[in-house]
Design goal:
Pfam families: DUF5342
Organism: Cytobacillus kochii
Low-confidence stretches: none
Number of helices: 1
Protein name: YheE family protein
Number of strands: 4
Distance between the termini: 24 Å
InterPro entries: UCP037692
Number of domains: 1
Structural class: alpha+beta
Radius of gyration: 12 Å
């Protein structure tokens, strides 16, 4: 379960795509960049293989809701 999900634009011009995000998962903080094409670049420790795909799916859903479905 992801908790304390936050994101912010990478650019001053907020209309340009690209966002930094952070969240906690199992007590560990993760940081990354969500690119306009949906690619996720981890800035912190990469989640283990068992969790990474599920976390990416959750991040995509959150970004679609918060950014694209406004």
């Amino acid at each position: 379960m992801i908790s304390h999900f936050q994101f912010q634009s990478l650019y001053e011009n907020k209309e340009l795509p690209g966002w930094k995000f952070s969240f906690f998962h199992h007590g560990k903080k993760y940081l990354g960049i969500y690119h306009h094409d949906g690619k996720i670049e981890w800035l912190s420790t990469v989640p283990d293989q068992n969790h990474e795909d599920k976390l990416k799916s959750h991040i995509h859903e959150l970004m679609l809701y918060h950014v694209y479905d406004r």
